[in-house]
TrEMBL record:
<dbReference type="InterPro" id="IPR027417">
    <property type="entry name" value="P-loop_NTPase"/>
</dbReference>
<dbReference type="GO" id="GO:0007018">
    <property type="term" value="P:microtubule-based movement"/>
</dbReference>
<dbReference type="GO" id="GO:0030286">
    <property type="term" value="C:dynein complex"/>
</dbReference>
<dbReference type="GO" id="GO:0051959">
    <property type="term" value="F:dynein light intermediate chain binding"/>
</dbReference>
<dbReference type="Pfam" id="PF17852">
    <property type="entry name" value="Dynein_AAA_lid"/>
</dbReference>
<dbReference type="InterPro" id="IPR026983">
    <property type="entry name" value="DHC"/>
</dbReference>
<dbReference type="InterPro" id="IPR041466">
    <property type="entry name" value="Dynein_AAA5_ext"/>
</dbReference>
<protein>
    <recommendedName>
        <fullName>Dynein heavy chain AAA 5 extension domain-containing protein</fullName>
    </recommendedName>
</protein>
<dbReference type="GO" id="GO:0045505">
    <property type="term" value="F:dynein intermediate chain binding"/>
</dbReference>
<feature type="domain" description="Dynein heavy chain AAA 5 extension">
    <location>
        <begin position="151"/>
        <end position="302"/>
    </location>
</feature>
């Protein structure tokens, strides 16, 4: 079966004004300025390759921006702009609306689209992790895929504790926590394993489809595993553990200290046992040194946890 390359263009329509979304004439010069959506559709329709193009509109629906797409949703599949330009979507193009609800959408819009309703609990956070692991170089996946899932068992117990016992600054589900964790973890890991985030879309898709991406790790294999474990713990603390107040951080410090002591980490965080040689800061209710006082630093000759307290 032939592999089809997919290009995805994601836009939040509510983050842009109507003029910035579709384009508008300048009041002073009467020159036409392209909108973001109009430019994306124009470029995608001009691409004559057989690659699939998905335009994803990820944001709340309102009666302004979505009504202007009714001509796109018709059988003609044409985007009509105020400049008089008409852009016809190619057969390889699709438009997806990712919305919370359709409470303000008109019957004219609803009758033109197909609906797929999915509850977050039906998907869960593991599909997000699975998708991320598939972006890692193939040799990293083969060596440490099982270890990755063991680390995310630690995430599961931690996020359940935070949701159940700590006051959250921002209400998040497990899917939100794991997304934040992966973003931070990926920022730390990518430069070390040679996972190039700056490839153009074509090369990124080719790597993903052929699954031949190889790592160019700057660390020895055993040191790389240490770095993966330590950066995961650091990312866990500053994603899941960052979304709570001082009292919640104290609870999480005690909980995570006990939890980490049961895990078989090659380079554990050098934390004292709860109640031993800990002191309270004058400005916080948190014990020190705590899980929030350490950062993992891969130096040339050794891998260490630095304590900034």
């Amino acid at each position: 079966m032939d592999v089809v390359t997919i290009h995805r263009f994601t836009i939040n329509p509510k983050a842009l004004s109507m003029n910035r979304l579709y384009g508008a004439f300048d009041d002073a010069t009467h020159e036409w300025s392209n909108g973001v959506l109009a430019q994306v559709v124009r470029e995608a329709s001009a691409d004559l390759s057989k690659d699939r193009k998905w335009v994803v509109l990820d944001g709340p629906v309102d009666t302004l921006w979505i009504e202007n797409l009714n001509t796109v949703l018709d059988d003609n599949k044409k985007l009509c702009l105020a400049s008089g330009e008409i852009i016809k979507l190619s057969e390889e193009m699709s438009i997806v609306f990712e919305v919370d609800d359709l409470s303000v959408a008109s019957p004219a819009t609803i009758s033109r689209v197909g609906m797929v309703y999915m509850e977050p609990k039906q998907l869960g956070w593991r599909v997000i992790v699975h998708s991320y692991i598939n972006t890692l170089p193939l040799d990293i996946q083969n060596q440490w895929k099982d270890r990755f899932w063991e680390l995310f068992d630690l995430f599961e117990s931690t996020v359940q504790f935070v949701i159940g016992h700590c006051k959250s600054v921002i209400t998040l589900a497990a899917e939100g926590y794991v997304t934040n964790l992966l973003r931070l973890f990926d920022c730390l890991l990518s430069p070390v394993i040679g996972k190039d985030k700056h490839l153009d879309k074509k090369n990124r898709n080719e790597n993903a489809n052929t699954n031949t991406a190889k790592s160019a790790s700057a660390l020895a294999p055993n040191d790389l595993l240490i770095a993966i474990e330590c950066w995961f713990v650091f990312s866990l603390i500053w994603s899941v553990g960052a979304n709570t107040d001082s009292e919640g951080r104290l609870k999480l410090h005690i909980h995570l200290t006990n939890l980490l002591a049961t895990k078989n980490f090659i380079l554990p965080m050098p934390l004292p046992k709860p109640g031993a040689s800990e002191s309270k800061s004058e400005h916080q209710d948190l014990l020190h040194p705590s899980i929030y006082d350490f950062v993992f630093v891969p130096e040339r000759k050794q891998l260490i946890w630095n304590n900034f307290f």
